[in-house]
Amino acid sequence: MMPGRNASKTYGTVSAGTQKAMSGLEFVQGLADGTLPLNTIAQTLGYDVAEAASGRVVVTAKPSDIHLNPAGTVHGGLAATLLDSCMGLAVQSTLEKGVGQTTLEFKISLLRPITPETGEIRAEGVVLSRGRRVGTAEGRITDGKGRLLAHGTTTCLIFES
Questions:
Q1: Residues of the chain with pLDDT under 50
Q2: What's the CATH code of the domain at 33?
Q3: Cα–Cα separations (whole angstroms), residue 87 to 29, 76, 81, 113, 121
Q4: Looking at the domain assignment, is residue 71 inside a domain?
Q5: Over the stretch 68-93, which tens digit does the pLDDT of each residue have?
């Protein structure tokens, strides 16, 4: 088990049929409460979907030595993955049954170094706009003291699944 992971969570994929039968909010809440498996990248990187509401999703992680780049700080790819996940899932949480989404593009800004000493970090994604074909969201990664470590925006394509 990865540092900071909830032992009750499982990992894998959710079948297309199961996803299609659920609203986006039901899907994301299932990830958060453990009734659905988290994706395997969450297991690899050690992050969790901690909170899910319509238009808002929180993902948490506890950076450790496995996340370090050659300079000794946490690789920016961890922040990018957390932001992509929380923002994309925030858009997903607004979708009706039979509708899916995928990231078209995202941008992030890394403001402060993250190290294992930072402790648990929290990535919160919030939907800015949700239309029939495109959804946008913003995300913020903060530490336990509320300091902003990174932020980003995403554009997601919305489609019938």
A1: 1-5
A2: 3.10.129.10
A3: 15, 16, 10, 21, 15
A4: yes
A5: 999 999 999 999 999 999 999 999 99
CB atoms within 10 A of CB 38: 24
Cβ pair 159, 99 in contact under 8 A: yes
Instruction: Read off the pTM.
Output: 0.93
CB atoms within 10 A of CB 160: 8
Q: Which residues pair with 80 in a beta bridge?
A: none
Give the contacts of 61 (CB within 8 A, at least 6 positions apart): 4, 45, 46, 47, 48, 78, 82, 120, 121, 123
Q: Are 79 and 110 in contact (CB under 8 A)?
A: yes
The whole-number pLDDT of residue 161 equals 87
Nearest Cα neighbor of 91 from 49, 134, 59 is 134
Range of the domain at 122: 16-160
Instruction: Quote the number of domains for the chain.
Output: 1
d(CA 116, CA 114): 7
Q: What is the per-residue pLDDT for 8?
A: 73
